Amino acid sequence: GAVVSQHPSRVICKSGTSVKIECRSLDFQATTMFWYRQFPKQSLMLMATSNEGSKATYEQGVEKDKFLINHASLTLSTLTVTSAHPEDSSFYICSARVSGQLYNEQFFGPGTRLTVL
Amino acid sequence: AQSVAQPEDQVNVAEGNPLTVKCTYSVSGNPYLFWYVQYPNRGLQFLLKYITGDNLVKGSYGFEAEFNKSQTSFHLKKPSALVSDSALYFCAVRDYIKAAGNKLTFGGGTRVLVKP
User: Fold this and answer.
1) Where does residue B21 rank: exposed (0-12), middle (13-18), buried (19+ CB within 10 A)?
2) Which residue of A has its CA nearest to B102?
3) A76-92: per-residue pLDDT in tens?
4) Which of A22, A94, A110, B98 lies 20 to 30 Å from B44, alpha-carbon distance?
5) Residue B76 — left, alpha, or beta (φ > 0 → left; ψ -120 to 50 → alpha)?
6) A81/A17 Cα distance (integer angstroms)
7) Exposure string (b/e) for A101-114, b if CB count within 10 Å is 16 or more?
8) Given the DSSP bridges, would you call strands A19-25 and A76-81 parallel, antiparallel or unpaired?
9) Which residues of A touch B98 (CB under 8 A)?
10) By C-alpha distance, which of B67, B112, B111, B109 is closest to B90?
């Protein structure tokens, strides 16, 4: 099946710094990528939908200036957490949908655990 | 708006016994339904999906799910559970209507614990 990678898998940073998380579709082209946030023992909450070559669409309550998303190519989307705070500590998961397959499953990356000190 | 409910936070089952994880959904149009499994500190792995056709869907690792339109349910089942099936299971739905945004909505998750 299709493979989605994320880098880094784990990152620890100080408050006030910015952290970039990369999401890559390794063996397919993804017109649309999704970014989720998951708190411990909770479900995935969609943060934003990223479309290649256009601005991301953010869910209600998600600060677009804090969570910068760039989908520069059909295989790469990045999430940058700017001026990180301890409450931003979470598990971030990206997902990609195969281009042209509107109803098929999304493929998920392994996740990135962010810890802000 | 679309929504998914997984009424059980945790399901405990003995190894070799049948396993059922419940899921009900709500959408405006026809649903696309999915089951995913998550192991600790890992992303989600796809198990199976229902798009159209037979109501009984067979997926990975011996899992299956039955789509019941009248009860708006999509329960996940496995005839004989393994200890290695212990994980967090998510049901998800996407509305067929494009105006809904083609977003996956996840249930709250059900933790499955299979005891030897």
Assistant:
1) buried
2) A102
3) 999 999 999 999 999 99
4) B98
5) beta
6) 8
7) eeebbbbbbbbbeb
8) antiparallel
9) 102
10) B109
Tens digit of each residue's pLDDT (9 = 90 or more) over A7-64? 999 999 999 999 999 999 998 888 889 999 998 878 889 999 988 888 899 999 999 9
pLDDT at position A105 is 66
CB contact under 8 A, A44 and B108: no
Which residue of A lies nearest to B38 if distances are taken between CA atoms?
A110
Kindly list the residues from chain A whose CB atom is less than 8 angstroms away from the CB atom of residue B43. 4, 6, 93, 108-111
The pLDDT assigned to A110 comes to 92
**Chain A residues inside the 8 Å CB shell of B94:** 103
The residues near A63 (Cβ < 8 Å, ≥ 6 apart) are none
Query: Cα dist. A82→A65, A94, B40, B86 in Å?
Result: 8, 18, 27, 36
Residue B97 pLDDT > 80: no
Nearest residue of chain A to residue B30 (CA atoms) = A103
